């Protein structure tokens, strides 16, 4: 009897110890992965004239204290990365895909350039992406649509090319804000775009979009802003545009549209 109790106690201790060792090591592995990922990003920054990262992103302090980095309270993993307007130049490394816990990514208003790595699509928890006002290029369809929780997407003022994927809204059902102005997007406005049921802001100005403005535009009951300026959209403005009762701002100028609203 005594022996059994002792054995059971010893077993329980062993299980507890094992649990502790395993959870401790997973935790440090995860935070180490995030640290090496951020260091890889830092190594790809070729110019940091305002010294945001140079000294601050130091291995002597926890990454959770680094400027622009926010960690989740429960997991101590990087949750948000906000490098907006830091005058950084460089490229985005493939390793970015290892920051798997991230929900917020803002690298807008810098001088990042090049192709976005396809590994970015690993970050399926993202609900906010801003890469606006950089010098990225490449087909937008290559990596858009892998973020099922995305609410905010801004890619304005880069050199992205290609058509707007017609299944975009099937893949991004929660999208509320879409900023694609000032790029080199081409092709027609896909009817699929009007399946984004909760979308409020659509900015597609100053691209090379062509074709007509489909009458399905009238489906967007929550739409507040539509900016299509400076494209080659033609034909008659569909009557359904008057179904957009939530609209506050409607920019259609510098196209080949006719008709009345
Ligand atoms: C990111 O993950 C890949 C694949 O697991 C690995 O090869 C690479 O070394 C990792 N990068 C960093 C910076 O940890
Ligand atoms: C890095 O920047 C953050 C936020 O500005 C600041 O709280 C922290 O003390 C800085 N760390 C170092 C080592 O400079
Ligand atoms: C970027 O930062 C500079 C310097 O702090 C500031 O003057 C400027 O207004 C900022 N720009 C934006 C778009 O926030
Ligand atoms: C485009 O982005 C650059 C930074 O890369 C900025 O200097 C410029 O003012 C932006 N242009 C517009 C029209 O917003
Ligand atoms: C949308 O507008 C059209 C034309 O003005 C109208 O016939 C139709 O009933 C409207 N649909 C809805 C759902 O409001």
From TrEMBL:
Keywords: Glycoprotein, Leucine-rich repeat, Membrane, Repeat, Signal, Transmembrane, Transmembrane helix. It is found in: Cell envelope; Membrane. GO terms for cellular component: membrane. Residues 1-23 form the signal peptide. The keyword Transmembrane applies. Residues 32-71 form the Leucine-rich repeat-containing N-terminal plant-type domain. InterPro entries: Leu-rich_rpt, LRR_dom_sf, LRR_N_plant-typ, PGIP. It is a single-pass type I membrane protein. PANTHER family: OS06G0587000 PROTEIN, POLYGALACTURONASE INHIBITOR 1. Belongs to the RLP family. Belongs to the polygalacturonase-inhibiting protein family. This is Leucine-rich repeat-containing N-terminal plant-type domain-containing protein. It comes from Gossypium barbadense.
């Amino acid at each position: 009897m005594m022996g059994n109790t002792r054995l059971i106690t010893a077993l329980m201790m062993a299980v507890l110890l094992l649990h502790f060792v395993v959870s401790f090591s997973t935790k440090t592995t995860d935070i180490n992965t995030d640290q090496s990922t951020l260091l890889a990003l830092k190594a790809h920054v070729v110019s940091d004239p305002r010294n945001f990262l140079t000294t601050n992103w130091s291995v002597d302090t926890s990454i959770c204290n680094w400027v622009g980095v926010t960690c989740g309270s429960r997991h101590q993993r990087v949750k948000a990365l906000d490098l907006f307007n830091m005058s950084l130049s460089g490229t985005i490394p493939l390793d970015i895909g290892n920051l798997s816990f991230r929900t917020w990514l803002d690298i807008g208003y810098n001088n990042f350039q090049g192709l976005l790595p396809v590994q970015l699509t690993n970050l399926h928890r993202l609900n906010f992406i801003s890469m606006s006002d950089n010098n990225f290029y490449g087909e937008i369809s290559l990596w858009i649509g892998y973020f099922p929780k995305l609410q905010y997407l801004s890619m304005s003022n880069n050199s992205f090319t290609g058509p707007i994927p017609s299944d975009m809204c099937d893949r991004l059902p929660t999208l509320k804000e879409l900023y694609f102005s000032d790029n080199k997007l081409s092709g027609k406005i896909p009817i699929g775009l009007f399946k984004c049921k909760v979308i409020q802001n659509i900015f597609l100005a100053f691209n090379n979009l062509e074709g007509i403005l489909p009458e399905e535009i009238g489906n967007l009951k929550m739409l507040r802003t539509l900016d299509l300026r400076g494209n080659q959209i033609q034909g008659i403005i569909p009557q359904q545009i008057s179904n957009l009762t939530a609209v506050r701002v409607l920019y259609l100028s510098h196209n080949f549209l006719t008709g009345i609203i």
